Amino acid sequence: MQVLAGALGWPHTIKKLAFRAPHVPALARLLLDRRASDPLEPPWPDLVLCGEGLTSVIARCLRRRAAGAVKAL
Hints:
Elements: H1 2-8, H2 28-31, E1 47-48, H3 53-65, E2 71-72
């Protein structure tokens, strides 16, 4: 995803997310290890690119928190 954003010339920030086991996407919000992850707080991005199921669940949560202003792909 970083290569895609870089190739498009878009400014981007990478956030590292850590999850506890088991890696079940439906439980991603509960399994997110907030101490081991980068903070997810405003200002919200315009676009979130995800490469796996766990992170896509978190991206959808960000979209809800930002009242739909975030596009999650």
